[in-house]
Amino acid sequence: MLQFLTDKAIYIVMIIVLIVWIGIFFYLLTMDRRIKIIEKELKGDNYEE
Amino acid sequence: MIWKILLFVLMTFVSIAGISFPIVEKPSNWYEFPLIPGLGENAKIIFFHVPTAWLTVVAFFMSFIFSIKYLKQKNHEYDVKAYVANQLGIIFCILATLTGAIWAKFAWGAFWSWDPRQTSIFALLLIYGAWFALRSSIDSDEKRATLSSVYSIIAFFTVPFFIFIMPRIMTGLHPGSADDDNLGPVINFKMNENMQLIFFLSLTAFSLLYFWMWNLGYKSILIKEKLIKKFER
Question: pTM, whole model, 2 decimals?
């Protein structure tokens, strides 16, 4: 496995891109959830027009 | 929720396939890409650079639609939606320019050579840059929304010309230009079916990602405005 990755460096790039993508995806997911919670809270608000 | 899982799976697959599938002279397995003369390994940029240019068009088109809607109904929400679409549009436009320039250094020998494609995207950046200048120069909310809607609608008429027409009728270096002997609609240039499939999956994945970013963007602005209104009382 290690030898394979040393020989074909492009797969290391692929793994790094995947890790970055997973990080971005889960960040977006938490942002999405946060905004939904705030939206819900604002809806039940008397101040809203 | 389902489309978010779809986005995750698609983008993961596109990253794996787009980066690591080998390019060979005569593809025999489904996972092999054909060798495009003159491009070689550089051809793999198509899975990541073209979607950014595609999202530029999608974003500016959405801004066009929401600007029309705003002028019709004068609903503030549409102005916010058009604003976020233009914001994302210009971000992806800059990304397409940058990734293209880096690629050009190794494919054409220079970062910038005023190829028709580069010239047209530069014009597009200026046109939409002016939109933000216009927006920030008006104080009154309604006037700003109306004027920027009108500008956005007029500006969009230049987009098909700059992205789809002008770089293809002129001779140039960019794949798909008039003297490119791999010619055809850009998507057909010597890609095999597998490469086309992954290319379209990439476009889908990036479109979903754009949609999500746009969604978060306009929602957060609307929430911010609601909260400001609430605390002003």
Answer: 0.88
